Amino acid sequence: MKKPAIETVDLFTHLVDPNSSTRRSSFFLANQDSYRAANLEFPFRNSFYGIGITYSGYSGHVQIGSATYPVQKGSLITIGPGTVSKWATDYTSEHDTVFFTEELFHRTIKLTDLTRLSFFKPAGRHVIMLEQETQDRMKLLFDAVKSFQTDDAIIPGLVYAILQFAIQCHNQPRPTAQPVNATRYEAITQEFTTLLTQHFRNHRTVHFYADNLHITPKYLSEVLQQTTGKTAKEHITEFLVIEAKSLLKQTDMTVQEIASWLGYTDASYFTRLFKQQVSVSPLAYKQA
User: Fold this and answer.
1) Which of 35, 38, 80, 164 is the most exposed place for a label (fewest CB within 10 A)?
2) What span, in angstroms and rounded, lies between the C-alpha atoms of 260 and 110?
3) Helix (H, G, I), strand (E, B) or coil at 26
4) InterPro entries, per this entry (predicted)?
C-alpha cells in the first residue's frame, strides 16, 4: 500500500459520513454529531483551515501543538493546515465548524495569504472567547452556510464572511490591560512555540531554542512555567509525542519510518521515549 503524504492527511475521511452525499471538496461542515460519530480519540493532523464556535455548555479542552485550551460556551476556535490537535471532550456541547481550503475562493474572491493570519499558525491564539452578541452574529453566518452548503456559487462568499468576522474578533482589544512582564512572557512563549514547530524534527535541546531567543535555558523554562505550567523540555517532548501519535494513527508509516521522520536515527531510543510518555509502545498504540 502506498503511504499517504504527511501533508495530505486530514479530517475529511474521519468526519464525513462515507454514506452521505458529501463529496470531497475544498469545503465541508462538521458539528458535535460528526465528531462523536468519528470518535477521534487520537491527535490528528489537519490539511484544511478550520473555524468553529461552541454554542453551549463546557466542551472539555483541546490541545493544539503543545498548548492546551479550555473549550466552553462562546469559544471561537481556529486551526490551520499542518497543525496537529487532540480533543478531550464528550462532544455533547452544541458547536459548528467549517473546514475549507484556499481553493474554495479561487474563482470568486481574491484572498491575501491565509498563512499570514496569526490564528491559523501553530503558535497563534487558537481559542478566544466571544461575547453573547458576537456569538449570535457568528451563529447567523453558520446557519446561512448550512442553508446554502450545496450551492457552489454562494458558499465561497459565506465562508469568506465567517473568515472576515473571525479576523474582526481576533483584532478586538483585550478586555483588561496586562502587566509588562506578562506581555513579555507571552511574546517569548509565542516565539518559542513558533521555533518549536519549525525545528522540532532536528533540534530537541532547550539550549537551541534559548539561544535563538537570546535568553538563557533557565530563563526560558521559567517563563514557560509561568505561562503554560510546563518546562521547555516538557514542551519539546510533548510536541514530539503528539506528532508521533498523529502519524501512528493517520498513516501506514512504520515505527522506524516515523522515528526517522521525527529526526531519530535510533528507532529503539524513540520507542523508549514514546513508551515512557504514553505507557505503551508505538506499535501497541498504532494497533489499539
Assistant:
1) 164
2) 40
3) coil
4) Homeodomain-like_sf, HTH_AraC, Tscrpt_reg_AraC-type_HTH
CA-CA-CA-CA torsion for 62, 68, 73, 76, nearest 10 degrees? -80
Q: Which CATH superfamily is domain 180-287 in?
A: Homeodomain-like (1.10.10.60)
Separation in Å, CA 4 to CA 45, 223, 252, 253, 260: 12, 38, 8, 9, 16
What is the Cα–Cα distance from 200 to 47, expressed in whole angstroms?
A: 19
Instruction: Look at residue 196 and give its three-state secondary structure.
Output: helix
3-state SS, residue 74:
coil
Domain 6-171 has CATH 2.60.120.280: yes
Reduced to 3 states (helix: H, G, I; strand: E, B; else coil), residue 31 is strand
Residue carrying C-alpha cell 531567543:
213
Q: With a threshold of 0.85, does the pTM exceed it?
A: no
Domain coordinates in residue numbering, the chain: 6-171, 180-287
- pLDDT tens readout for residues 216-260: 999 999 999 998 899 999 999 999 998 999 899 888 889 999 999
Confidence of residue 1 (pLDDT cuts 50, 70, 90): very low
> Which pLDDT tens digit goes with each residue over 196-215?
988 999 999 999 999 999 99
Segment holding 261, helix H or strand E: helix 255-261
